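> call design_seq(struct)
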């Protein structure tokens, strides 16, 4: 195994460990904190096609849904990735073309918000279309190096030989994107009780996925885990005027302080709303969901 492959394997192993600890959403400082033999190697850089100085070929490709390029999934296992600029022979585009020829694994970074990326690995360039100024990227494959026999028995790279469960990863990407955007909109507050511990907050759907709800901020609420569960179970509801209502039988129930102060005292309060009007819960969606709550009373 040559030095290039050793560094790439070390990056993949380290990044996999970060994902195990922090989840698939990582920040730029986290992505760029990798150290190999005393030397920092940046995984995410100033260009969408990123090649650190220590490598001959790119290590990552980044997409911004709000950017000028029309990148995106075309199936559960493939996505289009635009060239940088309009010159097929630009060095960054040549780098991805060479990565395709040599079947070199890359990291796909989908921007969620400023400085935050959903990390998907490994991905491969499988098609080059110069006439359309784009590559096709496979997000489901098996790691293959130029001399796989050198690494096949090494424990630290065994995970790289497994096929990536792309459908699940894609779904997780949408869920994580939704969570990050909703929590950012509410400034890490529970909309009901104002709890500010991000690790205890969820992005709750007003209209669930199973009922056609879309992963949009206006279909979301930042809720602590208790109030998320209470909302999902129709113990409390939120009307189109953003007022909290607690189910009648729960209001009349006598229990400990958690019920009294955590649920019953919320009745009649107005939820905390995002500052931006474009991110506030859609009143029509709330009305539809509130009808479901009313039938549970």
């Amino acid at each position: 195994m040559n030095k290039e492959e050793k560094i790439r394997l070390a990056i993949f192993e380290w990044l996999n460990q970060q994902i195990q600890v922090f989840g698939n959403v990582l920040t730029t400082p986290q992505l760029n904190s990798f150290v190999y033999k005393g030397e920092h190697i940046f995984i995410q850089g100033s260009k969408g096609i990123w090649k650190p100085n220590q490598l001959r070929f790119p290590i990552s490709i980044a997409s911004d849904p709000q950017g000028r390029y029309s990148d995106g999934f075309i199936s559960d296992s493939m996505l289009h990735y635009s060239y940088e600029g309009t010159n097929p022979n630009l060095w960054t585009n040549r780098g991805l073309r060479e990565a395709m020829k040599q079947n070199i694994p890359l990291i796909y970074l989908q921007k969620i918000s400023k400085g935050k990326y959903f990390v998907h690995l490994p991905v491969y360039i499988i098609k080059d279309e110069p006439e359309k100024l784009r590559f096709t990227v496979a997000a489901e494959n098996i790691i293959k190096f130029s001399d796989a026999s050198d690494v096949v028995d090494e424990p630290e790279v065994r995970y790289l030989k497994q096929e990536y469960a792309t459908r699940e990863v894609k779904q997780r990407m949408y869920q994580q994107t939704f969570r990050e955007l909703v929590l950012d909109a509410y400034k890490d507050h529970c909309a009901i009780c104002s709890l500010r511990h991000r690790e205890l907050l969820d992005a709750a759907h007003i209209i669930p996925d199973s009922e056609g709800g879309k992963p949009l901020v206006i279909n979301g609420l930042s809720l602590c885990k208790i109030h998320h569960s209470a909302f999902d179970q129709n113990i409390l509801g939120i009307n189109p005027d953003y007022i909290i209502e607690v189910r009648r039988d729960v209001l009349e129930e006598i229990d400990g302080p958690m019920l009294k102060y955590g649920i019953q005292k919320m009745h009649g309060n107005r939820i905390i709303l995002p500052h931006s009007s474009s991110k506030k819960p859609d009143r029509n969606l709330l009305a539809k969901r509130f009808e479901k709550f009313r039938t549970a009373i």
